[in-house]
Design brief:
Multidrug-efflux Transporter 1 Regulator Bmrr, Chain A; alpha+beta
Length: 183
């Protein structure tokens, strides 16, 4: 991997994330390939964006950052057998009492994360580097069976733009050997 495209993950300590958005469960690629607007994830974003227009004032009150959208991929225990998983797209929020019926909320566990940025042009190569090289070298593993993609409207310009950037958050834990102290 060329040096300029090597991601530089940062560790984020003790973060709690709460999302509000729309949910899909199943195989999102049964009718269209990955990274396509025609697959179920693309359809989910379209549904969410249409609802954001309807609930604009409400969302402006509860959103923690208006320029960010999140995509959560959560693998249930039977994922390896079914290839079905949860996808949620939405925004980060603070505490709320209730949400419109079309939305769902998800409070993710308080944990440490690694965060890194990829460009559309080499997202798969950069992600593989983080999982296969960087994490083992740092004695880190994934703590929970989910990942988050964070889309900043100032840096993400669509699937077709190879310079579009996506931030990734992976919940992590330190791998310690017997007798070692964790940091």
């Amino acid at each position: 991997m060329k040096e300029s495209s090597t991601p530089n993950p940062q560790i984020i300590k003790d973060k709690q994330i709460k999302l509000l958005g729309c949910v899909f469960f199943g195989n999102p690629f049964h009718e269209a390939k990955e990274w396509s607007y025609e697959n179920e994830i693309g359809n989910l974003w379209i549904r969410f964006m249409n609802l954001t227009k309807q609930y604009k004032e409400y969302l402006e009150k509860i959103s923690s950052r208006s320029t960010l959208g999140y995509e959560l991929h959560l693998e249930p225990a039977d994922y390896s057998k079914t290839n079905h998983y949860y996808v949620m797209v939405g925004i980060e929020i603070g505490e709320i009492e209730e949400e419109p019926l079309e939305f769902f909320t998800k409070s993710l566990p308080r944990t440490d994360y690694i965060e890194f940025t990829t460009q559309m042009s080499d997202k798969n190569e950069q992600g593989a580097y983080v999982y296969q090289t960087w994490m083992p070298h740092k004695k880190i593993s994934q703590r929970y069976p989910y990942i988050l993609q964070k889309y900043d409207s100032n840096r993400y310009r669509g699937l077709e733009d190879p310079s579009s950037e996506i931030d990734w958050l992976i919940p992590i834990q330190r791998n310690t050997q017997r007798g070692e102290k964790s940091e």
